[in-house]
Amino acid sequence: PTQKQAPSKGGQGKTPPNRKVTDYYPVRRSSRKNQKELQTEEKKRMDELIKSGKEDGMKIDFIDGKGRGVIATRHFNRGEFVVEYHGDLIEITDAKKREAAYAQDPSTGCYMYYFQYLSKTFCVDATKETNRLGRLVNHSKCGNCQTKLHDISGVPHLILVAARDIRAGEELLYDYGDRSKASLEAYPWLKH
């Protein structure tokens, strides 16, 4: 039988300690931004777009059978900010009072958009005629835009983003979402 030999104590036969690649090459940190940093930058960019009120890449046009509408004058990528639905941000009790007052004058029209935010019902009332384009985007059940809420310092902003790529020359459209019987009777175009 063979016996195992004990390692000699004279330093011979010792194996060198394991080395890591970083012992020979400096550690390079990635300059790429992580997901959180990218999201923070995108939020800041969106905040600035909304605060500025700039409405580039679209124009008002007359649409047969609809009246005024908004046409894209440039390409919008899917998911890209298009325009804010801008108006007075009010709570539901004030909104219902205004809506009742508007109903007294059939020439006024109604540009009120109701939504839930932090367990409360709010409304953006864009009835007052302004130079803002979001209020003039027409309805389609198959619209090329969709609504989204964007929070700036605790205040919700109702924006439209491209639901798909939108070409220059296309009418901007989104689904108003109103399917009540009374609305469908008063506004048959909501069915399309």
UniProtKB/TrEMBL annotation:
Entry GO terms, CC: nucleus; polytene chromosome
Domain of life: Eukaryota
Catalytic reaction annotation: L-lysyl(20)-[histone H4] + S-adenosyl-L-methionine = N(6)-methyl-L-lysyl(20)-[histone H4] + S-adenosyl-L-homocysteine + H(+); L-lysyl-[protein] + S-adenosyl-L-methionine = N(6)-methyl-L-lysyl-[protein] + S-adenosyl-L-homocysteine + H(+)
Subcellular location: Chromosome; Nucleus
Record EC number: 2.1.1.361
PROSITE patterns in the record: SAM_MT43_PR_SET, SET
Gene Ontology molecular-function annotations: histone H4K20 monomethyltransferase activity
Primary enzyme class: transferase
Compositional bias (Basic and acidic residues): 34-44
Annotated GO biological process: cell division; methylation; regulation of DNA damage response, signal transduction by p53 class mediator; regulation of transcription by RNA polymerase II
InterPro entries assigned to the protein according to its UniProt record, in alphabetical order: KMT5A, KMT5A-like, KMT5A-like_SET, SET_dom, SET_dom_sf
Pfam families the UniProt entry points to: SET
Record keywords: Cell cycle, Cell division, Chromatin regulator, Chromosome, Methyltransferase, Mitosis, Nucleus, Repressor, S-adenosyl-L-methionine, Transcription, Transcription regulation, Transferase
Span list, region Disordered: 1-44
SET domain span: 56-177
Protein's name in the database: [histone H4]-lysine(20) N-methyltransferase
Organism (species): Naja naja (Indian cobra)
Taxonomy of the source species: Eukaryota, Metazoa, Chordata, Craniata, Vertebrata
